[in-house]
Amino acid sequence: MKLFWTNNIYRQLLLNSCFSSFGDSIFYLAIINYVAQYNFAPLAILLISISEMVPLLSQLFLGILGDFQENRVKHALWISKIKILLYAILTVFLVLSPFSLVSVIMIVIINLISDTLSYLSAYMMNALYISVIKDDLHDAMGFRQSLMRAVRIVANLAGAFLINVMSIQTISLINTLTFVIAFLGLYVIRHTLYEVEKRIEMSHTALTFKKYFQHLRQSLAVLLRLKETVILLFLTTSMIAILDVSPRLIALRFIQQTLAQLSIGQLLALLSIIISCGAILGNMTSSNLFKNIRFTHLLVFCEISLLALITSIFCQAYIMIFMTSFISSTIIGILSPRLQAAVFAYIPSDKMGTVGSALSTVDILAPSLLSLLALSIASSVSVQLALVFLYLILITLIFCQWLVKFNTHN
């Protein structure tokens, strides 16, 4: 947290991300809530979901594209202006025309363009961001993760309130204003960022089809040289995937009964808050209270807590579910910034966009695939078998960790 107050560039870039995330979150909630009352709701929600997913899946391409950009600060400023213009046009369109499927298509197109540009901007600026926090990488990443989680919680709570008292047009305007604030924040520190940009190493060649795959191969080769760190990242990502799927399995497990007088929706909301609070606590304490605990020990603690979580779901012991969910998310919150710092401390600045996007792609695909498998088993056979499947995954992870430790000691 100290870095937030002492490093002006880090503070402003982080605040810019907070404002953008806040606006995006409340607008997404508002759109989903608003379209639910129309007969084209299923199609609208599908289109909106696709517009959210496509930029996520294109991150690897955007990361490589970001590594080949020059004049990154100027490009980031232009991207901010374009996003403001896009959402200003959308707001005017929503004000002047009755809401229909055409409005949804307009929202989807603008959201798709805006999110794609946002990821490109993030990966362009990644090298500058890491350069600014190089000496405090662990602390900076932990605080960033905790603050962004807190912003999403506040945005969800605010969105739940605002969608009942404001029109979709007003919320669209608020979203536009958050992008304006983010642009002004970037504009204020632009001269300092120009100086940072001059110091970082970057590619000065044009991106071609051949260069694309060559750069991807070189970036992954750099990443794979950090063998033990990559294995730890894989183990942590797998555990995050298990924690992510657990609320949905809990919902299926308790669907036929009330749990402590809570509805399924209330239960999921409570679990989401507990997991988020645990992750925030872990992120905040990662660089101070728990900095001397070894990675392998933290992984063992997390594996034990996840085994206890799966067992408590099996036994329908809701107090243990809450406790083990909190403990697991806290340990993962401690691990995550430490591992990211360990990776980015050794990645050349001209490859940071590609490496960052590759890690983000894995973070998205691993939980998604595991969730798909576990939920498919739960819905087609039984929740109990899905829990057995998670047991087997965890046992495999424990065995993999034992092998790595064995090889390291020999």
Task: Write up this protein.
Helix content is 84%, strand content 0%. By secondary structure, the chain is mainly α. The protein has 2 domains: 2-203, Growth Hormone, Chain: A, CATH 1.20.1250; 219-409, Up-down Bundle (Growth Hormone, Chain: A). Helix 11 packs parallel to helix 15.
If you consult CATH, what is the topology of the largest domain?
Growth Hormone, Chain: A
Point out poorly predicted stretches. 406-410
What radius of gyration results from the CA coordinates? Answer: 22 Å
Number of helices: 16
Task: State the name of the first-level CATH class of the largest domain.
Answer: Mainly Alpha
Helix proportion = over 70%
Order of helices and strands: HHHHHHHHHHHHHHHH
Measure the end-to-end span. 40 Å
Number of domains: 2
Global structural class: mainly alpha
- Beta content: under 5%
Mean pLDDT: 82
Biggest beta-sheet profile: none
Named CATH architecture of the largest domain: Up-down Bundle
Care to count the β-strands? 0
Topology:
Layout: H1 2-6, H2 8-35, H3 41-57, H4 59-67, H5 72-96, H6 101-132, H7 137-165, H8 168-188, H9 190-199, H10 209-224, H11 227-253, H12 264-285, H13 295-315, H14 318-344, H15 352-380, H16 383-409
